[in-house]
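Predict structure. Chain length: 247.
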Amino acid sequence: MAKLDAIISYANRYLKVEEGEDAPGAHNGLQVENSGRVTRILASVDSGLAVIKKASAAGSGSLLIVHHGLFWGGVQPVTGTFGRKLELMRAADMALYSVHLPLDAHATVGNNVLLGKALGLRRLEPLLGFGRSGSFAGSRDELVRRVMKTTGRVPQVCAAGPERPRRVGVITGGAGDLLEKVAAAGIDTFVTGEGLQWTWLRAEELGVNMIYGGHYATETFGVQALAAHLAKKFRVPWQFVDHPVPL
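Prediction complete.
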């Protein structure tokens, strides 16, 4: 058993949640507190009702770490589905900690660095502040196979760039609209989660390979690595609450 405030204080420092900008609804940090004691740490990508239900079944006193927190829609009344989530967490004495871009950007437990390493990228460097880029010793087809093996799903591929990538960029989640900035940074192959329809057409015009690995599938790495790190430091068990979204 560990103290909630000790875990949160450490996590905020470790992830530097007070530094940098994020989406207005991200609200990085502790979003829901519990009675103050943590018996286990849970990790999940999202904070949907289905995830909260699964997490609450793990028992009392959990700390749920998510990448996408409760408040993306801004201020909302505590009614309906939103109220139900809070009721379930209160009944399970569950705390909820959300961390978005600070987790994407982290050099050790970040989504981008972990996916980049899993794909075999070499000499990883920061890309646009929170992404990662590196070289790849193989063909585009081999990179696609590695994305598929790493994420567990078949990616969508716009093969508009070189057959042998020189510089590969990785920005997980819904980062397809960053294509032009990524291309301007010298990236010829861009691995992301998803993008709007126009990003495919623009990739063709720019001569850039786009590999869409899935928003959910590319963002399972960071929350698990963070949970494992905190669990080891504070000597509590942890588990992943998987609720796949095929997008």
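Summary: The mean pLDDT is 97.
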